[in-house]
Amino acid sequence: MQRTAGELATLLSGVIEGDPTISVNRLGKIEDAESGAITFLSNPDYEGYIYDTGASVAIVSNSFRPSQQLPTSLTLIKVDDPYAAFAQLLEYVGKSNLFPAGIHPSAWIAEGAHLGDDCYIGPFVVLEKGAKVGNGCQIHAHVTIGRDAELGENTQVFSGAKVLHDCVIGNNCSIQAGAIIGSDGFGFVPKADHGFQKVPQTGNVIVKDDCEIGAATTIDRATLGSTIIGKGVKLDNQIQVAHNVIIGDHTVIAAQTGIAGSTTLGAQCMVGGQVGFAGHIKIADGVKIAAQSGVTTSIKDANVVYQGTPACPIKDYQQQQIAIRKLTRNHLFDRVDELERSQKNSEDQP
């Protein structure tokens, strides 16, 4: 990336304060950025760093008013929302770093596979028979696109990820390294000899447009029908999505969450890390689940916040925690023991 402050201000719909001709070639954190870097200030707790930052350009809020002298070499770009503007800049830089279109000679493309225009196919990529890859896709080293699987346009699949047979990925998606989409769901029937018979998993996975699937996340194919990841869903690293799960549009889920089979999450939900969902339950739209909660029953009310194991409305959870602290703080256990001893002594008196 080599751009002037003026060019970036135009990109971000911002207003320049300083030298619009100053050039930057990289991004940097405000606390340790050096000359030639662009950074941003969004959190007020970090304001102190801007007064001695080495960055050449900083993105700040329109409302920012310095309380000290800024470095004379620093140019500001003022915008409505610095965090959103920096995210836009990151996306812009990411697109500028795309690999040039072409097919590495070690890639294996089966007869009957279809490859769109302007795609990058990296080393040791496998496209199996019937696979379809849309225009502008970037498929990196050691990726497998299975038999009759489909990728929409401008989707990126990073190293070592697998999109297995019959699965469908939408447009503008990002599948991070090591993710596996379409492995068998966990289906077994107990047998009379105490063993288990595998239930064939005959469905697929559908990931709709604008989704991000984190590194080492696994999404199981349905037993019948489809496991469905809605439009704009963002899944963090190391998440397990079991067979026949449905995740509604624009839901975001943090790392190490596990969702058991046939559970449905509504649209625009937010799920913290290490949350566990039981199977065959339904979560309403807009629900927020705090980290490390265990959701064992359906949540029917929209836009509520739950916490704890088993998860309950967050106010109830907080009251429970307060009550537990009071038990120890007020020595209630000791007082009950003393009352029991007194009662026993009273009963033992002649």
Annotation keywords:
350 residues; ten-stranded parallel beta sheet; flat; 3 domains; twelve-stranded mixed beta sheet; Udp-n-acetylmuramoylalanyl-d-glutamate--2,6- Diaminopimelate Ligase, Chain: A, domain 1; 17% helix; 5 helices; UDP N-Acetylglucosamine Acyltransferase, domain 1; alpha/beta
Secondary structure layout:
Layout: E1 3-4, H1 5-11, E2 15-17, E3 23-24, E4 26-27, E5 37-40, H2 47-50, E6 57-61, E7 75-79, H3 82-96, E8 102-103, E9 108-109, E10 114-115, E11 120-121, E12 126-127, E13 132-133, E14 138-139, E15 144-145, E16 150-151, E17 156-157, E18 162-163, E19 168-169, E20 174-175, E21 180-183, E22 188-190, E23 196-198, E24 204-207, E25 212-213, E26 218-220, E27 226-229, E28 234-235, E29 240-241, E30 246-247, E31 252-253, E32 258-259, E33 264-265, E34 270-271, E35 276-277, E36 282-283, E37 288-289, E38 294-295, E39 305-307, E40 312-313, H4 314-329, H5 332-348
Parallel strand pairs: 4-5, 5-6, 6-7, 8-11, 9-12, 10-13, 11-14, 12-15, 13-16, 14-17, 15-18, 16-19, 17-20, 18-21, 19-24, 20-25, 21-26, 24-27, 25-28, 26-29, 27-30, 28-31, 29-32, 30-33, 31-34, 32-35, 33-36, 34-37, 35-38, 37-39
Antiparallel strand pairs: 1-3, 2-7, 22-23, 39-40
